[in-house]
Amino acid sequence: MITITKPGLLSTIQDLGRFGYQKYGVITSGAMDSLSHRLANLLVGNDENKPTIEMTLIGTSIQFHQDTLIAITGGDLSPTIQDQPVRMWRPVLVRKGAQLKFGRAHSGCRAYLAVAGGFSIPTIMNSTSTYIRANVGGFHGRALKAGDQLSFAEKTAQSSKMIKDLHNRERDCPFVEMNWSVSSDLIPQLVKKPVIRVLNGRHTHLFTKESQEWLWTKPFQLTQQSDRMGYRLLGPQLHLEKPLEILSEAVTFGTIQVPADGNPIILMADRQTTGGYPKIGEIASVDLSFLAQARPLDTIFFTNISLEEAQLLLIEREKKIKQLKHGIYYLAGGRQHVHG
After folding, report:
1. Residue 88 domain-assigned?
2. Residues 41/52, Cβ–Cβ less than 8 Å
3. Cα(48)–Cα(35) distance, integer angstroms
4. CA of 138: how far to CAs of 243, 271, 334, in Å?
5. Do 69 and 15 sit in the same domain of this protein?
6. Rounded to 5, what percent of the chain is helix, strand, coil?
7. Is 30 in the same domain as 165?
8. Rounded distance, CA 318 to CA 141, Å?
9. Is the residue at 315 inside a domain?
10. Residue 337's pLDDT is what?
11. Is residue 311 part of a domain?
């Protein structure tokens, strides 16, 4: 069990989303950076969909009431255990009584904390994800608060092997880290002014030639009104060749809509189920995690790619994740470790 001693700016329970209910108007939600969420779970021997804690910009502080295997991924929110820096993207055994603290984001926007077994959270409509606006899912349908206590679900055999390997070593240290981690080619590189790959949308051809050119060549800035529902952008205003009435239709994570004011909106994890604005583009799935780590006032660029290119990039990433799974399974019972 853990106790939240400081909630941070916005910390919620998330999994990979609530699917199958959009026809009833229930949004998907889920982790903004699904790649970091998946890798955090794999590092502690969990199924990829187990609930994690998603922290935004300013992290939480957590007291551990039992020895626990954890992994921290995503943006760098300066994690420490008993005021000692702890490395990310690897399994870490935290001792009973130790306190894990996150600070302000050093790079990126969102960090993910997974624990062996996952958090014991009720499933609502096949998901543990939190949707705060509707008070659905997660921990009582809300962001975590100081004093909240979270228990753990049953650990896998793989998790137990890693815990056993680390448990009896360096007992006087508050935590013990494995000295292997996720390969750098799987970790999202959080650069300034990222270039996000985009497919043409259903209505790209209906925009002026100038607007289409600007989308691929001009910078856009995330406004402070950006959140889990959508990223509002400022930049060159994009306009249709002529006014058009569009029936409301399905949208997805990464859809770029353009309302009448010409300022694009990228729909994110807490997006609505349908939308009636023209769609000028769709973010490639492999770049959604990069986008999720962008912060308000950050500048981003877009570049155009084909559907075939986007599919190949996604297939290649999934191959790397599969290789990681095999590697973790092989190393789970290993003897290599370092301590904090």
Report:
1. yes
2. yes
3. 10
4. 42, 17, 34
5. yes
6. 20, 30, 50
7. yes
8. 31
9. no
10. 43
11. no
User: Domain total for the chain?
Assistant: 2
Please answer whether residues 222 and 233 qualify as being in contact, where contact means their C-beta atoms are separated by less than 8 angstroms: yes
Which residues are within 8 A (CB) of 267 and not within 5 positions of it... i.e. 6 or more apart? 229, 230, 251, 252, 253, 254, 255, 256, 257, 275
- 283: domain CATH number is 2.40.100.10
Question: How far is it, in rounded angstroms, from Cα 121 to Cα 52?
Answer: 10
Q: What is the pLDDT of residues 73-94, one digit of tens each?
A: 999 999 999 999 999 999 999 9
Alpha carbons 331 and 5: distance in angstroms, whole number = 33
Per-residue confidence band for 333, with pLDDT thresholds at 50, 70 and 90: low
Query: 19-23, 177-181, 212-216, 329-333: which has the highest mean pLDDT?
Result: 212-216
Distance in angstroms (rounded) separating the CA atoms of residues 84 and 80 = 5
Please give the structure tokens belonging to residue 296. 């308000």
pLDDT computed for residue 338 by the predictor: 41
With a CB cutoff of 8 Å and minimum separation 6, the contacts of 139 are 12, 13, 121, 130, 148, 150
Nearest alpha-carbon partner for 116 in 64, 189, 61: 64
Range of the domain at 170: 2-182+320-339
Handedness of CA 10, 12, 15, 21 (dihedral sign): negative
Mean pLDDT over residues 120-127, rounded? Answer: 95
Q: Return the half-sphere exposure (C-beta side, CA atoms, 13 A cut-off) of residue 169.
A: 17
E strand or H helix at 164, and its extent? Answer: helix 157-167
| Residues 156, 41 share a domain | yes
- Helical spans, DSSP H, in 86-152: none
Same domain, 71 and 172: yes
Tell whether the model's pLDDT for residue 304 goes beyond 80: yes
* Segment holding 191, helix H or strand E: none
Q: What is the mean pLDDT of the chain?
A: 93
Q: What is the mean pLDDT of residues 164-179?
A: 85
**pTM exceeds cut of 0.90:** yes
Question: Hey, what are 41's tokens?
Answer: 């779970």
